[in-house]
C-alpha cells in the first residue's frame, strides 16, 4: 500500500514526510524527522512520555496516527528552548533538580508548558492533576511540581528570572 | 566515621549544582538507548511462549524468513547445546545449561514468556510481523504457581535432574 504524504508544521518549521497507514505521530517524529526528544514509554497513552501539542492541544503522540498531522502545527520538546535560551520551565527544572534519569522529562515539560498556557496561575492541586498523565519513576514529583509552580510564577512576572551560566544550553 | 570539623573546607557538599547532563535532558537532546540510530540498523523481536510449561514439538520459521526485510531468524537449533555444568558466577552457583536455556528455550518452555525464537529485520514493524509468522507447536504440560502445590507429591517437574526426595543427589 502506498505511503501517505503529509505536510505539517513542526516547532514552527514546515515539515513534510511520507508515512505508512499504521505509523503513529511518535514514530514519525522520532524516525522520520529525527526528533527523538519525545519518548516511547508505553505505546498506550498511559505514561505521557510521548506528549506533544497539536494546534496547542496536549496529546499523546503514540495515540495519534502520523497521517492525522496533515495541516496541523506540532510542538515538541525540541521547540521549547529558543536556540541557547532555555524556557523558564527548563531552567526551573534544572534549578530544582526536577529530573534524574530524564526519560519522562520531555513529556513533563511539554505538558507543564501546556498547563501554564491554559492556566497561568495554577494551584498545586491543579498542577498535580494536569500532570497526572505524565508518569515519573525517579523523582517522586515533588521537585517537578515545585519547578512548574516556580516557572509559572516567573512567567506571570511574579518573580525575577535568575539566569545563571549553568542554566544556559552549552 | 569522618567528621568534618570545619564546614568551610567543603567545596561541593552543601551546594546545589545543576546536574551536568541536565541541559541535554531538558532540551530533549540527551540520547537514550532507544534514540540511537545507525545506518543499516536492524531491529530484533522475540517469539515468546504463551505456556508456562510445554514441550516444543516443532518451530516453523519459513514464512518469517521469507518475509521481505527479515535478515535473520534464530532458534535454539542455531546455538550449541550447553551441557549441565555448575559454576560459581558471583553470588552463588549457576548451571550454564540453565543460563543458556533461559536465553533461548530448547526442547521445553519453562515459563510464560520464555523465548523460543528471535528475528532481526529492517524495521520494527517487519520484525513484529515476522514474529507473528513463526509457527510453534507445543505439547502443553501441567504447571504450578504455588509453593505448596510445587512441594506436593506428583507435582510437575521442570527439569529431570532436580532431586525431589531428600538432599542426596541422584
Can you tell me about this structure?
- The complex is a heterodimer of chains A (170) and B (170).
- The longest helix of chain A is centred in the middle third of the chain and has 14 residues, at 105-118.
- In chain A, helix 2 (88-96) runs antiparallel to helix 5.
- Residues 163-170 of chain A have low confidence and may be disordered.
- Chain A is of the alpha+beta class.
- Chain A has helices at 25-32, 88-96, 105-118, 124-130, 142-155, and strands at 4-10, 13-19, 51-54, 57-60, 73-75.
- In chain A, strand 3 (51-54) and strand 4 form a beta hairpin.
- Chain A has a 5-stranded mixed β-sheet, sandwiched between helices.
- By secondary structure, chain B is α+β, with helices and mostly antiparallel strands.
- Chain B has 5 helices and 8 strands, in the order αββαβββαββαβα.
- A 3-stranded antiparallel β-sheet of chain B has the order 1-7-3. Chain B has a 3-stranded antiparallel β-sheet with strand order 6-2-8, with no helix packed on it. Chain B has a two-stranded antiparallel sheet with strand order 4-5.
- In chain B, strand 4 and strand 5 (93-95) form a beta hairpin.
- The model of chain B has no long low-confidence stretch (mean pLDDT 92).
- Classes of the chains: A alpha+beta (170), B alpha+beta (170).
- Chains A and B meet through helix 2 and helix 3 of A and helix 1 of B.
Give me a quick take on this structure:
Chain A is of the alpha+beta class and 170 residues long. Chain A contains 5 helices and 5 strands. In chain A, strand 3 and strand 4 form a beta hairpin.
Features:
heterodimer; A: about 170 residues; alpha+beta; five-stranded mixed β-sheet; 5 strands; disordered C terminus; B: about 170 residues; three-stranded antiparallel β-sheet; 5 helices; about 20% helix; flat
The number of distinct β-strands of chain B equals 8
The share of residues in extended strands of chain A comes to 5-15%
Assembly of the depicted chains: heterodimer
Q: Strand-and-helix sequence of chain B, N→C?
A: HEEHEEEHEEHEH
- Class of secondary structure makeup of chain B: alpha+beta
Helix and strand content put the structural class of chain A at alpha+beta
Distance between the termini of chain A: 44 Å
Got a strand count of chain A?
A: 5
Shape of chain B: flat
Give the uncertain stretches of chain B in residue-range form: none
Distance between the termini of chain B: 52 Å
Q: How does the major sheet of chain B shape up?
A: 3 strands, antiparallel
Side by side, the strands of the main sheet of chain A go: 2-1-5-3-4
The most extensive contact between chains is: A-B, 34 and 20 residues
List low-pLDDT spans of chain A.
Answer: 163-170
Beta-strand proportion of chain B: 15-25%
Largest sheet of chain A: 5 strands, mixed
Question: How would you state the average pLDDT of chain A, rounded?
Answer: 93
Please count the helical segments of chain B: 5
The helix fraction of chain B, in percent, is 10-25%
Strand order of the largest sheet of chain B: 1-7-3
Amino acid at each position: 500500500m502506498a505511503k501517505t504524504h503529509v505536510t505539517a508544521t513542526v516547532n514552527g518549521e514546515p515539515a513534510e514526510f511520507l508515512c505508512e497507514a499504521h505509523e503513529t505521530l511518535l514514530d514519525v517524529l522520532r524516525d522520520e524527522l529525527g526528533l527523538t526528544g519525545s519518548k516511547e514509554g508505553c505505546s498506550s497513552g498511559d505514561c505521557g512520555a510521548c506528549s506533544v501539542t497539536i494546534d496547542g492541544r496536549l496529546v499523546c503522540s503514540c495515540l495519534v496516527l502520523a497521517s492525522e498531522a496533515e495541516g496541523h502545527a506540532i510542538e515538541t520538546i525540541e521547540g521549547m528552548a529558543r536556540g541557547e535560551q532555555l524556557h523558564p520551565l527548563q531552567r526551573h527544572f534544572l534549578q530544582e533538580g526536577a529530573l534524574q534519569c530524564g526519560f519522562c522529562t520531555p513529556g513533563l515539560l511539554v505538558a507543564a508548558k501546556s498547563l501554564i498556557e491554559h492556566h497561568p496561575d495554577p494551584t498545586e492541586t491543579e498542577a498535580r492533576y494536569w500532570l497526572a498523565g505524565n508518569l515519573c519513576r525517579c523523582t517522586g514529583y515533588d521537585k517537578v511540581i515545585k519547578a512548574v509552580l516556580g516557572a509559572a510564577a516567573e512567567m506571570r512576572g511574579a518573580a525575577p528570572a535568575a539566569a545563571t551560566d549553568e542554566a544556559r544550553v552549552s | 566515621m569522618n567528621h568534618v570539623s570545619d564546614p568551610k573546607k567543603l567545596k561541593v557538599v552543601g551546594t546545589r549544582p545543576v546536574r551536568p547532563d541536565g541541559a541535554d535532558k531538558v532540551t530533549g537532546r540527551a540520547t537514550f538507548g532507544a534514540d540511537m540510530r545507525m545506518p543499516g540498523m536492524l531491529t530484533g523481536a522475540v517469539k515468546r511462549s504463551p505456556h508456562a510449561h510445554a514441550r516444543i514439538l516443532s518451530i516453523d520459521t519459513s514464512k518469517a524468513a521469507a518475509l521481505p526485510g527479515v535478515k535473520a531468524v534464530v532458534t535454539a537449533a542455531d546455538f550449541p547445546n550447553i551441557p549441565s555444568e555448575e559454576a560459581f558466577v558471583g553470588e552463588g552457583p549457576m548451571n550454564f545449561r540453565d543460563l543458556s536455556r533461559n536465553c533461548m528455550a530448547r526442547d521445553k518452555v519453562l515459563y510464560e514468556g520464555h523465548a523460543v525464537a528471535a528475528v532481526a529485520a529492517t524495521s520494527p514493524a517487519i520484525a513484529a510481523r515476522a514474529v507473528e509468522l513463526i509457527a510453534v507447536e507445543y505439547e502443553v504440560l501441567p504447571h504450578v504457581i504455588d509453593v505448596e502445590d510445587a512441594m506436593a507429591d506428583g507435582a510437575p517437574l521442570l527439569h529431570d535432574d532436580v532431586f525431589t526426595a531428600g538432599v542426596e543427589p541422584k
